[in-house]
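User: Here's a chain of 229 residues. Predict its fold as tokens.
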Amino acid sequence: MLTEQRSYRFADLIRHGEVEGDRCFRGRRDDPLSAAGWAQLEAATGIPVPIEGAIQGSARSAARSAAKGRIKDRSGTVAWDRLLCSPAARCARFTERLSERMGLPVEPLEALRERDFGAWEGLRADQIPLADLSRFWADPDAFDPPDSEPFRIFRQRVMDGWRQALEGGGEQLLLLTHGGVIRVILGALLGIPSQRLILLEVPTACRTRLRLPTQGGLPSLIAHGRPDV
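Assistant: Prediction complete.
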């Protein structure tokens, strides 16, 4: 039971929604969100967000009056006071519209990009030699796809970005990012070895909520999953 709410801060990690194109290894490749993917992110954040153009009229006034992002989502929960995202369009475009809706700046963070899969970029799993794919899933530390960002460097980059995000302050953080990034953060915080990260299901628009003590102690995973659209 929490007795001192002020001694905690919270972070929501949300994976981008469904994108246009086939299911494939998509790291630096940056296909846009589909209409369904946009709707998934609206459901994940609980906040309706216009797809095109800046907010106008009464909606703009409402955003200005929402001091420091203290508007509420559909569940009545107070929303975020910082918005961070991967610079990839499938993350940044929605976050930019959300920032207009909330009256908050958006903070693109290069460290929150997905891993570069090198020669596997754009390939479906059935287009990759089964032996290589099996080695990749079994232990990402021991096998890197050809010309890819090495997993150890990817992991270090992500965790450097995570620390940078926390050092920037805020009590309620949103990070809109990628499945691989979320797995790495959860693995580090919860002590999950790299060989088991693939067992963490992170579907499109999955929302992961973390409770982070501000003065010592361990972080807690308090929610993980995708709301129905």
